[in-house]
Amino acid sequence: xxxxxxxxxxxxxxxxxxxxxxxxxxxxxxxxxxxxxxxxxxxxxxxxxxxxxxxxxxxxxxxxxxxxxxxxxxxxxxxxxxxxxxxxxxxxxxxxxxxxxxxxxxxxxxxxxxxxxxxxxxxxxxxxxxxxxxxxxxxxxxxxxxxxxxxxxxxxxxxxxxxxxxxxxxxxxxxxxxxxxxxxxxxxxxxxxxxxxxxxxxxxxxxxxxxxxxxxxxxxxxxxxxxxxxxxxxxxxxxxxxxxxxxxxxxxxxxxxxxxxxxxxxxxxxxxxxxxxxxxxxxxxxxxxxxxxxxxxxxxxxxxxxxxxxxxxxxxxxxxxxxxxxxxxxxxxxxxxxxxxxxxxxxxxxxxxxxxxxxxxxxxxxxxxxxxxxxxxxxxxxxxxxxxxxxxxxxxxxxxxxxxxxxxxxxxxxxxxxxxxxxxx
Length: 425
Ligand code: BJ8
Description:
Radius of gyration: 21 Å
Oligomer: single chain
Bound molecules: Double cubane cluster
Strand content: 5-15%
């Protein structure tokens, strides 16, 4: 921890005492979950470095950007079109919080029976322990679920917030509403930054964001191989880091990692034995440092080969067309691309069920673990239909509902072991 960092955190009005506790806890957890893995790709060194300095260099970059007149935009959902931020010279950062650390402080205000992701997000603001939140000039919220929607009203008392209305159906009427929201966001970002979003800078931003999506697609395609060349934990980390690192640097590092994984695949070198049970995880997003389920599954001898999740395939599967066109045409293309995301906030949401079945086949998964954050009603209720559909397809399913605490780790371990036995037949 450099003196420089402490001064920056103080300038950001961080609660230094609580923040020290948070960072001091992260090191040993990372050591136990990540650095203890065997035969990791060398390309993971970059991502280890990013986590090791999680509130350091990147925050300095954001601060430098702000000192030069640039803006930082915090987001909580993959529905917020980051292309608009980059186009206007702003830097978007994913704020989604994945730690139990910030939950108790949030529970002093929010109802306890709120999902951990919402409590953790709000707790970071209330407790002043996240420099990314503090460095954001504007936070973009959305109306995906009721808990988030109402949390943003409370958050708005402490921080500038703009909420996008995400419709809950994919009809022509809903699409028109969403296009209006995307056009409205353009105006908001232009006002925030003082910069015009043009056909030229938007086309360029789209290319940059698509390049990272392609790199992530490449990484996930490599996970389809047997033996799998990278652990699920490491791949999850790469997905998580992509939410706040610089888009161009991140793309380069993911591609460098994939070059190495290509060689591993050619040499049939894996991190798990070729016959290790292969698991697809589907459900709520796992924001950094939520590594709980992957760690439990991989400690039990299975390997996570894919995440049907917003910190996973929903974030990169669809590209925005790069055929240019005028500004309106591009905004429409962006709106259409984001409407393809199959979040459980939509009804009906058959596309997600089709995705799970398709991904289970493509990744040669032996079973699916449906991951549901406690008190998330959309994913919990959708799991009923997911279960029926997978049963029909003969794909084994384990439904897990949990939060960020470790209290249920023993119970989950037992259920995962039993599930792996079922898979083994
Ligand atoms: S597009 S999944 S990132 S909303 S887990 S806060 S839904 S109660 S996170 Fe999400 Fe966007 Fe959808 Fe993806 Fe609410 Fe459920 Fe909590 Fe959730």
